[in-house]
């Protein structure tokens, strides 16, 4: 990683400068600005979400990893792809709203395809039921990707495929987390997917806000899309 001599205080200032009620375009503009320092800054933040998500998925994924097609939504600079490559996944499509983040993902050499998309405003640019695994890390939270996108993640997964999602569990994200879990539970009740694992993690990343100290907590959710039953009418 290129070192720019960044400090925790620099990182804290950047994150606190992002307005949580900003629109998608503003949020993506924020990431365009942050892209050059992102990898170094999240290292300082001890941001463990990509590793934790990859670990959860790796423990549960039964299929052929080298042949599996992975859709990394809100891929950023490619930290999730790097973690999944360590556990033998090889084929990645990345989607993100920020061109600057996508440029860095491209330079990682991990992704066969990269697509720009403003999630929540534009439709996820992949064929329905085309991916063995759909993953979104660090982007389902207040002020970022809306919970309505969860249905699109499900849609992109093949029947029998997996959807891995993360969110923060700190005070400011509690309402978003409740909404997210409600949507996930409703989809399970509709028979669209089944919950494989929920991993609650205390040390998710270092806290940056004034009213939090130490680490904030977070959650990894893993769901499996239920294959449709083929009904035959006589
Ligand atoms: C915290 S970063 C996470 C990146 C990567 N998944 C990781 O874990 O390092 C959040 C990413 O979500 C993207 N993002 C946020 N809101 C978005 C939106 N509405 N549409 C598309 N991308 C969005 C940002 O551009 C950024 O790359």
UniProtKB/TrEMBL annotation:
Domain Methyltransferase type positions: 71-164
Molecular function terms from GO: S-adenosylmethionine-dependent methyltransferase activity
Cross-referenced PANTHER family: METHYLTRANSFERASE (PTHR43591), METHYLTRANSFERASE-LIKE PROTEIN 27 (PTHR43591:SF101)
Species name: Scleropages formosus (Asian bonytongue)
Protein name: Methyltransferase like 27
InterPro entries: Methyltransf_11, SAM-dependent_MTases_sf
Pfam families hit by this protein: Methyltransf_11 (PF08241)
């Amino acid at each position: 990683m290129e070192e720019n001599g960044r400090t925790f205080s620099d990182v804290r200032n950047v994150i606190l400068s992002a307005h949580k009620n900003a629109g998608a375009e503003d949020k993506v503009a924020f990431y365009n600005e942050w892209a050059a320092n992102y990898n170094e800054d999240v290292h300082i933040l001890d941001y463990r979400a990509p590793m934790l998500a990859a670990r959860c998925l790796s423990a549960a994924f039964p299929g052929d990893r080298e042949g599996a097609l992975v859709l990394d939504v809100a891929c950023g600079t490619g930290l999730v792809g790097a973690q999944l490559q360590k556990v033998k996944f090889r084929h990645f499509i990345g989607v993100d709203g920020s061109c600057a983040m996508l440029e860095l993902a491209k330079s990682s050499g991990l992704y066969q395809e990269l697509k720009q998309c403003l999630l929540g405003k534009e439709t996820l640019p992949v064929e329905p039921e085309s991916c063995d695994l759909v993953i979104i890390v660090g982007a389902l939270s207040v002020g970022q990707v809306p919970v309505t996108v969860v249905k699109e993640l499900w849609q992109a997964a093949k029947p029998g495929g997996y959807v891995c999602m993360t969110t923060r569990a700190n005070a400011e994200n509690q309402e978003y987390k409740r909404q997210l879990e409600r949507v996930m539970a409703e989809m399970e009740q509709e028979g669209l997917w089944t919950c494989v694992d929920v991993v609650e993690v205390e040390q998710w990343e270092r806290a940056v806000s004034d009213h939090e100290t130490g680490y904030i907590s977070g959650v990894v959710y893993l769901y499996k899309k239920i294959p449709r039953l083929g009904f035959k009418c006589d």
